[in-house]
Structures are given as structure tokens and as C-alpha cells.
Write a structure and sequence with these properties.
heterodimer; A: alpha/beta; 6 helices; 20 strands; B: mainly alpha; globular; binds iron/sulfur cluster
């Protein structure tokens, strides 16, 4: 049995942190969630609808939040230091509070790639180049002065992913499905518009993703072009002239667009966190008692993140039991 | 004036100038052309393709890039054997699409 002295500190109150907190609670383990922002939910709180079938992000978040009812949450706090004394962690916060814990779970997630780093796309320079995250908040709030009844819209896949030059060699996993989801939503919002997506590979691997691809083509008339946008220039009227190769036809293309959406990938300032074994110890770090879950490890979709948080909780429960 | 050289036309496809009228007309009779995923199965298995350049995959792309004449020339070499229909993973009635390409583009006498 676990004695009630056990305490776990979760660093980060996004999807992974919230899910882990609810599961630890159900296992009778005293848990505290430390969140640096003033509200919980992380990136999930920023999204409007989720791929593949458009479920409201808010509904998923509300469920995660209602599941942690009773768990101690400290928002607006950051951890400044973690000290180990024998088997106990002393976790110091920015207001000098110290929390003692038996285990720490890192669920600090990802940052969105900074689009201005890919200068050839002109983000921050040209007004009508926006990011996937900004488009998502447009769907949520219904307003963005840059989105003014666009007739031709382009999506660029793999911005800041699969790109040795920016130092991110991996695939961010979520942006292909996001691009097609958002492309359909734009066709819905602007039925007169033509929507093009520019991809290198369409990685529609998850349940329902390939169906989303078919739906985008069949029901929404989204046009997928295999080829990466190589450069963007602004025309006199503020519209955007893009170049890409239609690699399936072997011909370079030029096209004028009213809006270009960059599918920025995931990254972490200090890199993703290494775990002991990518197959059988996916949530265990080299530091005994410190666990990790979710997109702090690698890019993951939301269902993967939630499953990964569950797996981490199992590791933590076993760890605490074994120590008795 | 003769500068001793000439400028060849840009090899870029200028999408702004491409008329989608004919493609959209074709799409009305053959809505399935929108769901081609460019897998190339049709081309690989094409009976006529063994001896001439015939590729339904490329035809569908050409039509979307304003290269109707090239697509039509290619369609005229099709033997309408229907082998490509057997292999298309999206279940497109490719043989029917090929007939419609010739019809919609106004050259049904070629069939
Ligand atoms: S999911 Fe798609 S868009 Fe995102 S990095 Fe991977 S291949 Fe590129
Ligand atoms: S129907 Fe035409 S395109 Fe299809 S396999 Fe036969 S010859 Fe080739
Ligand atoms: S086999 Fe079907 S899906 Fe594949 S390229 Fe040909 S028409 Fe398109």
C-alpha cells in the first residue's frame, strides 16, 4: 500500500500534467500541479477545434479540469530549484515556498517554433503571413484584421520541422492533420475561397486522419500540392507571391495568395527530454524519482499525450510502492 | 532589334493565369478526380504506358495546372482497357474518367 506521505509534484499544467494529476489522485497519491501561467491547460487552451473530427478543444480541457477536482494547483508559479536529500526532493518555488516530494513529473511540453526564423517566408515582415496558432485563435475569437475575406489561401507544412538548417530534424507529427483541419475550416468560413496546402509528405497516421485527408479533398475541395514553398514575396497590393515546385509534375509554380498560413512545429529551448529507453522506459529519466510525460519527450498528438501521461503515472505508482 | 540571343518563356506555371474552368467542368461529371492521391498505381500498371507516355496521375495534375492540351494528347493514347481501375486504391472509376477527359475537353471524336 502507498502511505499517504507520498507526494508528487507535477511541473506543468497542460494536457499531460492535468491527466497525470487526475490519475495520481485516483491512486490516492497527494499531488500538486505547478503552472507558470495564470491558467491551466497549456496549448490546449489556445486551440478551437481538434483534428481529426473537429471536437471542441474546450470540451476536452473541461473534462481534464473536472477530473482533477480536489488536486492542489499553484498557478503563476515557477520552480526555481530542485534539491534532492536522500530520497526526498525539496522543490523551491519563485516565492521561496519549499515543497517536499517523493517524485517529480515533468510535463513542461513544447514551444511553438518561431516562424520569423524562417526568413524566406516573411513572417513578421509581410502582413498576410500568419501562423497555425494565430489561425486557431481566429477560429476561436472570429477576428484577425489580417484575415479579410481571403480568396486564395495557402498552407505551408513543416515550418521549423524536418529542417536541419533550423536544427530541428524531426517531424512534429501534428501539423499535417492540423493543416488539413484548418484548410477545411477556412473553406467553411470562406466558401468562395480556394485553399492550397504545400506538403513534402502528408503524414496522416492516426485514427481518422486519412479520412480527414479524403474529406478535405472530396467534400472541401482542398488542393494538396506536393512541394515545399521556397520563398514568399509581397506584391504591391499586399498580396503574396509564392514559389513552390509541383514535384509530382516536375514543374515550378508561382501563385498569388491573399493569406499564407505557416504550420509551425514543436520545439523546446533546451531540447526534448531524454528517457531511459524509448521502448520500455519511456517515462523514466536517468535521475531517480524524476519522471517525464507528454510533448516534453517528443512531439505527440493529444491522444498520445494523454496515453503517455497515464503510462507515466503507472511508473510513478510502481516507484513509490517499491520504495516502501 | 537582334541582340544575338532570345529569351525563352518562363518554365514556371503561373497559377494566377491558369483557368480552372475546364477542370471544374470535368469535376462535375467526375467528382472523383478530386480524391486522387497521386500514388501512381494507374501509371505503373498502364497497358499503353509500356510503349507511350500515358499516366492518368499526370493527366489529373495537368488539368489542374492548365495543361489541358497535354492531358488530352495523353488521354488519346489510352486503350481504355480499364486495368488502372483495378489498382486505384481510392476506387476511382479511372476508365470513366479517361472517357470524360476526352469528352469534356471537346474531342470525343478521338475516342
Ligand atoms: S506532421 Fe506533416 S507538416 Fe508536421 S512536420 Fe511532420 S510532415 Fe511536416
Ligand atoms: S485504361 Fe488507359 S490509362 Fe488505364 S491502364 Fe488501360 S490504357 Fe492505361
Ligand atoms: S491509381 Fe488512383 S489514386 Fe493512384 S494516381 Fe492513379 S488515379 Fe490517383
Amino acid at each position: 500500500m502507498l502511505d499517504d506521505m507520498n507526494k508528487v509534484v507535477i511541473k506543468g499544467g497542460g494536457a499531460a500534467g492535468l491527466r497525470a494529476a487526475s490519475r495520481l489522485k485516483r491512486n490516492g497519491i497527494d499531488t500538486v500541479v505547478i503552472e507558470r501561467e495564470s491558467t491551466l491547460g497549456g496549448h490546449l487552451a489556445q486551440w478551437d477545434r481538434l483534428f481529426p473530427d473537429g471536437q471542441k478543444a474546450k470540451d476536452v480541457l473541461d473534462r481534464l479540469l473536472s477530473d482533477i477536482n480536489g488536486v492542489e494547483v499553484m498557478t503563476n508559479h515557477t520552480i526555481t530549484e530542485i534539491q534532492r536529500e536522500n530520497d526526498i526532493f525539496k522543490i523551491k518555488l519563485d516565492d521561496n515556498t519549499v515543497i517536499q516530494a517523493d517524485a517529480v513529473l515533468d510535463t513542461t511540453g513544447f514551444d511553438i517554433f518561431k516562424a520569423e526564423k524562417k526568413q524566406e517566408y516573411g513572417y513578421g515582415i509581410y502582413d498576410r503571413v500568419i501562423t497555425n496558432a494565430e489561425l486557431e485563435s481566429f477560429f476561436k475569437t472570429g477576428s484577425d484584421r489580417r484575415i479579410d475575406n481571403p480568396k486564395k489561401i495557402g498552407f505551408v507544412h513543416c515550418v521549423g520541422s524536418r529542417d536541419i538548417k533550423v536544427g530541428n530534424t524531426y517531424c512534429s507529427k501534428v501539423c499535417c492533420a492540423t493543416a488539413l483541419k484548418q484548410a477545411c475550416e477556412m473553406r467553411e468560413a470562406f466558401p468562395e475561397s480556394e485553399v492550397y496546402t504545400f506538403y513534402m509528405d502528408l503524414r496522416m497516421f492516426g485514427k481518422g486522419y486519412e479520412d480527414l485527408y479524403l474529406k478535405a479533398q472530396q467534400d472541401y475541395g482542398v488542393k494538396c500540392v506536393r512541394g515545399r514553398v521556397s520563398e514568399v514575396a509581397e506584391a504591391k497590393d499586399g498580396r503574396l507571391v509564392i514559389k513552390a515546385e509541383d514535384t509530382l509534375l516536375g514543374k515550378p509554380l508561382k501563385m498569388t495568395l491573399d493569406l499564407l498560413v505557416l504550420m509551425c512545429g514543436m520545439e523546446r529551448k533546451d531540447g526534448f527530454i531524454a528517457t531511459k529507453n524509448g521502448f520500455v522506459e519511456q517515462n523514466i529519466t536517468d535521475e531517480k524519482g524524476i519522471f517525464v510525460a507528454g510533448t516534453a519527450i517528443q512531439p505527440m498528438t493529444l491522444p498520445e499525450t494523454i496515453a503517455n501521461a497515464d503510462a507515466a503515472v503507472l511508473d510513478i505508482v510502481e516507484f513509490l510502492k517499491r520504495r516502501k | 532589334m537582334n541582340f544575338g540571343f532570345s529569351i525563352s518563356p518562363s518554365s514556371h506555371i503561373m497559377m494566377d493565369d491558369v483557368s480552372r474552368k475546364r477542370f471544374d467542368a470535368l469535376k462535375k461529371t467526375e467528382p472523383d478526380i478530386a480524391i486522387c492521391m497521386s500514388c501512381g498505381s494507374c501509371t505503373a500498371t498502364c497497358t499503353a504506358g509500356a510503349n507511350a507516355e500515358v499516366s492518368l496521375r499526370r493527366m489529373i495534375l495537368m488539368l489542374q495546372r492548365g495543361k489541358d492540351d497535354e492531358a488530352l494528347a495523353m488521354a488519346s493514347r489510352c486503350l481504355l482497357c480499364g486495368k488502372c481501375y483495378l489498382v486505384c486504391p481510392r476506387g476511382i472509376n479511372t476508365r470513366h474518367v479517361l472517357l470524360s477527359i476526352s469528352k469534356c475537353l471537346g474531342h470525343d471524336e478521338d475516342i
